[in-house]
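Example with several molecule types.
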Amino acid sequence: MTTVLAPERSRKRDADATRAAILAAAKKHFAQSGYDGAFLRDIAADAGADAALINRYFGGKDGLFAAALKDSIAPDRIAQWDRKTFGREVATMMAGHAHAQVDRMHSFQFLLQAATNPTTAPLLNEAVQERFMCPIRDWIGGDDVEARARLLASVFIGLLVERLIRDEPLEGPERDAFIERTAAMLQSLVEH
Amino acid sequence: MTTVLAPERSRKRDADATRAAILAAAKKHFAQSGYDGAFLRDIAADAGADAALINRYFGGKDGLFAAALKDSIAPDRIAQWDRKTFGREVATMMAGHAHAQVDRMHSFQFLLQAATNPTTAPLLNEAVQERFMCPIRDWIGGDDVEARARLLASVFIGLLVERLIRDEPLEGPERDAFIERTAAMLQSLVEH
DNA sequence: AGCCTATGTCATTCTCCGTTGACTTGGACA
DNA sequence: TGTCCAAGTCAACGGAGAATGACATAGGCT
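Resulting structure tokens for the full complex:
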């Protein structure tokens, strides 16, 4: 809203930079407000550009959203996780402050927004399958791969959402208990 | 959309019944489509009423949403869950089609929609804690109540989101495996 | 029966927002 | 320096959907 991604003095007619600024602003706004709640005029203003340029560069709001979505789904590091310590690592991360890594949460928040909007949800499936579910399936292996992969993804998502919407994180023994139980739950899904 | 909550022949000028029908339709539409994606005309049509009545009875879309939220967040349902069969019941529901039999999960889906919309999210925090998390805590009891309650809510949310994202539900043995594992996971959080 | 008010209907208006197309300007190149 | 195209600006259009208010009517009450 008030924060402007672009410097106060506008770029010097650099189409690529303008396009990138619009895309960055779009990712931010879509992640914060969802497809319907994000307005092209706001995005353009945030990027220090004119709303008409969105049409020129992205072909409309749909195109901008698709571009932002594609850009938000970063290559994953799923295969690099350590299967031994996976549960505890994730659990510890989830027990932390939600605002500690706001930037890293943007892409997820974007996905969550897209997923909860019936009109944009269909756009997700292909990308999510390819970038997340397939690597997860390969990584966990064992029996009931499909079921375990979906369940793992579900738990992961749920923990992230809870992390986003909760106002105060757990402290003390309750936090330890949360980590302990969460770690065990995740780990049980990873081990065959 | 096509399903009409009210009987084919309209009520006989019963304001309370009309109000209730509108509220029921609103809960359904808001849960499915979110605040922005739910249209008053659709809600009114679904309730077998005129859109103008929404204004009369609820003072506008905001008022209707607030009323539907308040009604959705009522704690009555939680205590009614059967602790013995809880895991399997929820798991079976989650394994079904996203648009089938969501009646019991309307309130959860409503919360998810409200939580991901910046304009409606502020309405949630206090109400969710008081009327949602507290009953859950009371219901599950036992040790580590706070941690288990949060974990349970997280898993629930994650399963809901996964339902929204996926385009095709599981079938056959994979479905059975999913239900089995999900039921066990949920049940382990409920039993002390 | 005959009013009278609450209930329901309809057409219209208002507002917001995405989109469009004509217009202006900067700057690269000859 | 002059030309020309891409980059950027501006105002207006159109559709969608919420809100409004005038109008119609059912049905209780006297």
